[in-house]
Write a structure and sequence with these properties.
It is built from six helices and no strands. By secondary structure, it is an all-alpha fold. It has two domains: 73 residues, no CATH class; 64 residues, no CATH class. Helix 1 packs across helix 5. It starts with a helix and ends in a 6-residue tail after the last helix. Keywords: Membrane, Transmembrane, Transmembrane helix. It holds the Pfam family DUF6691.
Length: 137
């Protein structure tokens, strides 16, 4: 039952991302060239909804589906971590024309060439896991 709930939420989220054109290469290209407010509006509204959602979770002590206590740990705030991570993420986003969430949306929409990008992202994640202890955090 738990996995069915996740699947339904994921499909719903994917449909919203596809219909809002958040997975559109053209919209991403347009955003990087400051040609339209569309993607900034989408991301800004997602940030606001995320902030409100976390506050609701914290204030009402909402528990996840499995019934355990919700654990929201703050991350370490080091400048090099965000600069290096942002550069790597931005380069990948610029080269692929898509960030991690919409990759799966495009795969579900039938753009099978995106599997090359998904394999690259998974490979990069695997390599990071191997090198994590040697990287500055």
């Amino acid at each position: 039952m738990k996995y069915t709930t996740y699947l339904i939420i994921g499909v719903f989220f994917g449909i919203i991302m596809y219909k809002s054109e958040a997975a559109s290469w053209f919209r991403i290209y347009e955003m990087f060239h400051f040609g339209s407010f569309h993607m900034y509006g989408l991301m800004g509204s997602a940030v606001v909804i995320g902030i409100l959602g976390v506050q609701v979770i914290k204030r009402n002590n909402i528990k996840p589906i499995d019934g355990n206590k919700m654990k929201l740990k703050p991350k370490k705030k080091t400048v090099i971590r965000y600069i290096l991570g942002g550069i790597i993420f931005g380069l990948g986003w610029g080269l692929a024309g898509v960030c991690p969430g919409p990759m799966y949306v495009l795969a579900g929409a039938g753009y099978y060439s995106i599997f090359i990008v998904i394999v690259g992202a998974l490979l990069g994640t695997f390599i990071y896991g191997i090198l994590k202890k040697k990287l500055p955090h």
